Amino acid sequence: MDFVATLITIAAALVSAYLHFLNSSPETRAEFIRSTKTLIGSAGRIATYVVILLITIMSAAAIYLFWTSDKPITRPEVVMLFLHFFNLSMYGFMSVAIPAKAIRKRRNPETDESDKPVPQPDAED
User: Fold this and answer.
1) H-run or E-run covering 28
2) Residue 71 maps to a domain
3) 74 φ, ψ to 5°?
4) H or E element, residue 89
5) Which residue in 9, 40, 71, 118 has a CA-CA distance of 20 to 30 Å to 125?
């Protein structure tokens, strides 16, 4: 019963927020849409980075467990070890490169690669 009451409360809050959005000025609507897009974009980047970190940590843990295991080595374990080394190298690089790129972009925003002009060949007549 508490779950149903929670769902009804959430639905009422969403309806009231939508009605408030409809009654607001166009400038307020534009600001809300802009800030919502920014928030969703940031949340997506953070979620992606968390997944990359988790894969890196899981691969490092699997390599450590293989290293410290007392059981005899089997072929599937060796194949998985190579795959874990590959994951650790690729995702480990990404887990360092993504924050480094974000820090560079934040410190020097005018050198963003997407804003660089495309060089045009000289027109000769």
Assistant:
1) helix 26-68
2) yes
3) -115, 160
4) helix 75-107
5) 118
Is residue 122 assigned to a domain?
A: no
Domain tally, the chain: 1
Separation of alpha carbons 18 and 10, rounded Å: 12
CA distances from residue 74 to 8, 69, 79, 86 in whole angstroms, order as listed: 55, 12, 9, 19
The residues, any chain, with a CB within 8 Å of residue 22's CB and separated by 6 or more, are: none
Flag whether 51 is in a domain.
Answer: yes
At 16, is the secondary structure helix, strand, or coil?
A: helix
What count of residues does the chain have?
125
Task: Going residue by residue through the chain, which has 125 residues, state the pLDDT in tens, using 9 for 90 and above.
Answer: 789 999 999 999 999 989 998 898 999 889 988 988 888 888 888 899 999 999 999 999 999 999 999 999 999 999 999 999 999 999 999 999 988 988 898 888 776 555 566 666 665 54
**By residue range, what is the domain housing residue 56?**
31-108
In-domain check, residue 44: yes
